[in-house]
Putative ribonuclease H protein (Vitis vinifera), 526 residues
Amino acid sequence: MGFGSKWVGWMWSYLSSAKFSVLVNGVPASFFPSTKGLRQGNPLSPYLFVMGMEVLDVLIRRAVEGGFLSGCNIRGGSGPPLNISHLFFADDTIIFCEARKDHLTHLSWILFWFEAASGLRINLAKSEIIPVGEVVEMEVLAVELSCRVGSLPSQYLGLPLRAPNRASYTWDGVEERVRRRLALWKRQYISKRGRVTLIKSTLASMSIYQMSIFRMPNVVARRLEKVQRDFLWGGGNMEGKIHLVKWEVVCTDKDKGGLGLRKLAMLNKALLGKWIWRYACDKDNLWKQVIKVKYGQEGLGWRPKKANGAVGVGVWKEIWKESEWCWGNMIFREDQSSGQGNWNLNFLRDFNDWELDLVGDFLHILRGHKPSLEEDSVLWRKGRSGQFRVKEAYSLLAKYDDTGFPSRSIWVARMPTKVAFFSWEATWGKVLTLDKLQRRGLQLPNCCFLCGCEEENVNHILIHCTVVRALWDIVFGLVDVKWVFPETVKEVLASWRGSFVGKKRKRSRTPFRCVFFGRCGRRGID
């Protein structure tokens, strides 16, 4: 590859200096040097591995050029086909060839030469040969590579290959991982704020990898969201507790009155829409070449043509469904600056006499315009710096209404977690007071347990009860504030953002919220 002898010596010292020891009957044996492979955990190993895989890449390409391997031809419109012979990702490799004995013999020799040149050995015990379509004498062909025979559908890089596009069973692995993770939290007490964090960081993120390629069936989305809801309100034991706030409200931004969780169907649309954006921005990526050859392109190469009828791959058809809203939020930026380039015109033939006037007009037009050396580009209308971001695309699809929710009075730094979460529930009027329990069918007398005079509801027990009002008067007296109480908890919290003046009074807002929680905590409705 052209590396100097000094650099090669450094790398050889790095490889040959490694020594290992193993336990024999529980006792460490003597150290022995490494003869093959790379040292795990060393920061240089990934780079050396990529360099080693370049050897295999060159061997396969030369075999295809010489006709010893065929590769896979992607055909679509009238243009030339695209040949793909192999795909590499880290130590996972897919090699395409015809189901012929001579091709597999050539492939076995390529792998043998690669092992001799790089010192990296192919683990054929973990490899398999997968036929596509009807292939006779498959077992005989597998003997040439000394590996087992696989079948489609299969898995590659954690994603299903050749599985039905909308089949719900292709998502069974995601659901199983979610339930296994929940089993680890079953015996732990986790606060509601902690559950929200775990849903965002773990439960909701487990499906993102597969959702970034495939359309999630609605039945799978409903099942996964039910797991998230049950965990949020019931904890690790998934107890059947009452879901106080609607899931649609929970899955809105915090400043709009939610908890910042995401609806899976909407998130799926935003993730798939990113591929429409990438097609316009990426240059010569292999995946874009495949789509371009398969379907063709339009709009001066900014977008592919739509796959009509039964022609096409189901995965891309699902992605294409997001093209309308994506293109509606893209704008094209043409370079308007005076260019520094020059025109270099080459005409295919001489001009006829009657064409000279037209050529003169054409050259006159070009004289006042210098071509720019910069390329035109596409920008995302709602994105920072004109770039597509899934978070902003999700907000665009969700179309949150401005509810005037006092989120800045609830989610405050250094606020106790239980107090903030209870304040959020109380703002929506979703605390389990006696009136709410009666609506759910429980036969209970509705009488405030503090004053014993009026019916109990969230606004009464937190604001208007005579016993609670006396407590409020004491707290406000400590900070020298005279205040007329609003009607609802939401109005109370909204007024706290501007009613008090001075740092001392601003610091006093936290005890006010704790009064909310303290009264209802004693009542047992937190």
The radius of gyration is 33 Å.
